[in-house]
Amino acid sequence: MSDMVGELITLILMAFALGMDAFSVGLGMGMYKLPLRKIFNIGLTIGLFHVWMPLLGLLAGKFLSEKFGTFATLIGGGLLILLGVQMIWSTMKKEEAKVITPVGFGLLLFALSVSLDSFSVGLTLGIYGAKTFMVILCFGIVATVQTWAGLLLGKKVQGWLGSYSEALGGAILLAFGLKLLTPFW
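and the corresponding structure tokens:
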């Protein structure tokens, strides 16, 4: 029972870290006057992408784990570290990102762009042997709620919070990557 609670807490923290980019981009998009119905649809779409992307990653990770064992665990830890560093590094860039309009194809592109990192984490979790249902449930719910929060807060808050939230998410992923690799040191 305590193992399951520990895994659930870990998954929620990872889901929180992965949802930070959706939250921070949602903050920026929320500054546009979006109706509540559109905010609801954007959150659900991103939540669904945060279910499918890690699911695909989990399936690929379980396959790799069966075939390559310890080597696959090293790759998974390395992927988390790289992803965490990339998220932190992207907050230091001074370039303005082009905003994708959250309508139709633009919404799908937006949802894909903020959920691609969850594929890599799903791959790692598949290698590690995480419970598939718990992963996709945590990732989907947390990403949906964080997107809604970002969009709604974006109506009231300036963009300064966005870069800090993405850096925090990167630090959490970096820490989990290091944790996965500690048995090998």
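(Above: one complete record from the training split.) The longest helix spans residues 36-68.
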